[in-house]
Design a protein that fits this description.
The chain is mainly alpha-helical and 117 residues long. It has one domain. The protein contains four helices and no strands.
């Protein structure tokens, strides 16, 4: 160390980067301890923190375990799929279908779906 005092934010970022790296190595099936050499990824990535209610995280963990992946891998997959959907126009199509359905329901030409619980 250079003797520079790290801030709490710097430490948190370092820990998040290390946790992400360890998780990615585990997903690739790599074994080893804390000391390892890293190879640069094909595409640079960045850790992004998302706050979610605890009950949502519990559901995410269960779903990830059932799929045999880590929670962060499942979230990453979902986000990449959604970004692709949004950029391809698929999400807009769904919004149009939803708007049409709501207007048909308001006009009494379609039955209302039961509300979600």
């Amino acid at each position: 160390m250079t003797g520079k005092q790290l801030t709490d934010d710097e430490i948190a970022l370092m820990l998040a980067d290390e946790a992400e790296d360890a998780e990615e190595r585990r997903e690739r099936g790599e074994t080893g301890g804390l000391l390892h050499t890293t190879t640069p990824s094909r595409e640079p990535s960045q850790v992004y923190t998302v706050r979610m209610p605890v009950h949502v995280l519990e559901r995410l963990r269960r779903m990830a375990a059932a799929a045999g992946v880590t929670p962060s891998a499942l979230m990453r997959t979902w986000m990449l799929e959604r970004l692709e959907l949004e950029s391809s126009g698929g999400a807009a199509d769904e919004r149009v279908r939803r708007a049409v359905r709501l207007e048909l329901e308001r006009a009494g030409l379609a039955s209302r779906r039961q509300s979600r619980r």
